[in-house]
């Protein structure tokens, strides 16, 4: 018996969002769009908040919108996120991301 496994974009976004939350210096994720912002106001946050999955030539891309902790090196945090996300997606989902972009949209004291 053979079959195939299909990983949805929503599952991929959740994996990426959960991974980003584990990185030191990440306070949280920022709404990536108006719909996500409204969901948060209404109290419906998801693990995939702040993650936008796209396609580039048949491969997935990931844009992460983060809030960084005050005083951290944002380039270092962004590199750590990129490295960890690409590793986790490759290892746990078997997917190579075409690109991973981290957008620091805010800084917050913790």
From TrEMBL:
It comes from the Bacteria. Pfam families: Asp23. PANTHER family: ASP23_GLS24 FAMILY ENVELOPE STRESS RESPONSE PROTEIN, HYPOTHETICAL CYTOSOLIC PROTEIN-RELATED. Belongs to the asp23 family. This is Asp23/Gls24 family envelope stress response protein. The lineage of its organism: Bacteria, Thermotogati, Deinococcota, Deinococci, Deinococcales.
